[in-house]
Amino acid sequence: MIGRLNHVAIAVPDLDAASAQYRSMLGANVGAPQDEPDHGVTVVFIELPNTKIELLYPLGDASPIQGFLDKNPAGGIHHICYEVDDIIAARDHLAASGARVLGNGEPKIGAHGKPVLFLHPKDFNGCLIELEQV
Ligand code: CO
Q1: Is the distance from CB of 92 to CB of 99 less than 8 angstroms?
Q2: How much is the pLDDT for 111?
Q3: pLDDT digits (tens, 9 = 90+) for 61-112
Q4: I want to staple 29 with a disulfide (CB 3.0 to 4.6 A). Which of 7, 14, 47, 53 is the partner?
Q5: C-alpha to C-alpha distance for 118 and 112, rounded to whole angstroms
Q6: What are the boundaries of each domain within the chain?
Q7: Catalytic site residues?
Q8: How far apart (Å, rounded) are the C-alpha atoms in residues 56 and 76?
Q9: What tens digit of pLDDT does each residue of 60-72 get?
Q10: Which CATH class for the 5-133 domain?
Q11: Is the distance from CB of 87 to CB of 117 less than 8 angstroms?
Q12: Distances (CA, A) of 65 to 22, 31, 49, 115, 121
């Protein structure tokens, strides 16, 4: 069911420092910061040949990233995103298999303008999983 690894999202305590590190130290193609108020994050996209990295930084008072950074002050991997062809079929299969879909279970439009869902990390070895329909 799942396809390509679309991206790995890393929560960072200092977006400028993390961007500079990926650009200068790791020699990556690093984009400009983009505010995404609907998701409570500022994101920097990093294009790799085979996938993307997203640096996440809290935006606003109710950011879902803030609690993660409170627990992981140095930052850390926040979620990984797999591509699926049909997000509704994927959701229904997962729900029938006992996995918990976060939120109200309806896809939201994600950072790339495509429908996404998140799966409870406790059902997936401690890893928050995002599904994106491509
Ligand atoms: Co994501």
Answers
A1: no
A2: 78
A3: 889 899 999 999 999 999 999 999 999 999 999 999 999 999 999 999 887 8
A4: 47
A5: 15
A6: 5-133
A7: 130
A8: 10
A9: 988 989 999 999 9
A10: alpha beta
A11: yes
A12: 20, 20, 27, 20, 15
CA of 25 to the centre of ligand 1 (A): 24
Length of the chain as a residue count: 134
Residue in 50, 51, 43 with CA at minimum distance from that of residue 19: 43
Residue 82 Cα to ligand 1 middle (Å): 9
**HEC profile for the chain?**
CCCCEEEEEEECCCHHHHHHHHHHHCCCEECCCEEEHHHCEEEEEEECCCCEEEEEEECCCCCHHHHHHHHCCCCEEEEEEEEECCHHHHHHHHHHCCCCECCCCCCEECCCCCEEEEECHHHCCCCCEEEEEC
How far apart are the CA of 24 and the centre of ligand 1, in A?
24
**pLDDT the model gives residue 61:** 86
Q: Tokens at residue 79, please?
A: 């979620």
